[in-house]
Amino acid sequence: MRFVPATTVVLALATPVAAAPRGDLLVVLNKSDHEAALVDPATLKVVKKLKTGKGPHEVAISPDGRWAFVTNYGAFGLFKPGEPPQREPGNSITVIDLDRQAVARTIALEGYSMPHGIQVSRDAKRFWVTCEENKTVLEVEIATGTITSKWVTGADVSHMLVATPDEKKLYVANIRSGSVTVIDRASGAVRAIPTGDGAEGIDIAPDGREVWIANRGANTVSVIDVVTDSVVANLESGGAFPIRAQFTPDGREVLVSNARSNKVMVFDAATRTRVADIEVGAMPIGIEITPDGSRAYIANTNDSKVTVIDIAKREATGTFVTGKEPDGMGWAKRAPAKP
Fold first, then answer.
1. This prediction's pTM
2. What integer pLDDT is reported at residue 334 of this predicted model?
């Protein structure tokens, strides 16, 4: 396999930046502002805004809560009625130091564009990212920015990605192909599983047994058995344009954002039945659930608000504003600073 060096640009700071107080952070990407907003979840106040590349879409947080990796996809204004979307294909990852609340560097993915779905490995030594225009998934070494592996999905609009807990396999949702690509990292084998029109949202159960996919064009949710890599259930989403899916940390429930219904549906993962519909804002897309499973944050792209959901009560409890067109989010679980 030919290893491809990526260009790493270190952004120099004019003056040293003092480390910020440690505490959990919610990272919200504002696509049309081309920035990442760092939110204090205790107060729901934005504590810092940092510039990224054009149209940041997804963010992955390192397990220690120190680093955020933002995909600069290059498209924004995607769902505004009557307005054409803006599209300037990006080809980079913005790396944010969450301790210092500053951009640390930019990793340029030479020869690859429109990076979107991203996940950091458990040891924080690498990340995996989809590159839509190349129909490819890359593995990138974080320390050097080197592309160490690549897999061609051969599918149209390979968008979102999840890894199994043991990190042996990657699952990739392909919007236009209506399928999920399964990548075996050791052997390099790649195969496609048809799911439904507009396969986009994807998440894996905490125990690694099932992958759930939101098929936005079919208004369905597919369930894949990880052992057999086959679809074992197709569920009605309960709304229009299901676009994201996320398991609660205990694996008992799955939240699905139905973007054109302005609702989040809650499914019982074991029985695969819909147990709640929760009204949120306009065009809900991104979902981020707190580590304790008590709250969910929903990015409402078209009204530029984030809704807070009390999961136990099955209700929205409020909203807050981070910027224009919020979408991808990430939770940074951070240990208190040492005395």
1. 0.93
2. 84
CATH topology of domain 7-332: Methylamine Dehydrogenase; Chain H (2.130.10)
Per-domain residue ranges of the chain:
7-332
Given a cut of 90, whether residue 115 has pLDDT beyond it is yes
- pLDDT tens for 18-57 read 666 679 999 999 999 999 999 999 999 999 999 999 999 9
Average pLDDT, stretch 264-291?
98
For the chain, the three-class secondary structure string (H helix, E strand, C coil) is CCCECCEEEECCCCCCCCCCCCCCEEEEEECCCCEEEEEECCCCEEEEEEECCCCEEEEEECCCCCEEEEEECCEECCCCCCCCCEECCCCEEEEEECCCCEEEEEEECCCCCCEEEEEECCCCCEEEEEEHHHCEEEEEECCCCCEEEEEECCCCCEEEEEECCCCCEEEEEECCCCEEEEEECCCCCEEEEECCCCEEEEEECCCCCEEEEEECCCCEEEEEECCCCEEEEEEECCCCCEEEEEECCCCCEEEEEECCCCEEEEEECCCCEEEEEEECCCCEEEEEECCCCCEEEEEECCCCEEEEEECCCCEEEEEECCCCCEEEEEEECCCCCCC
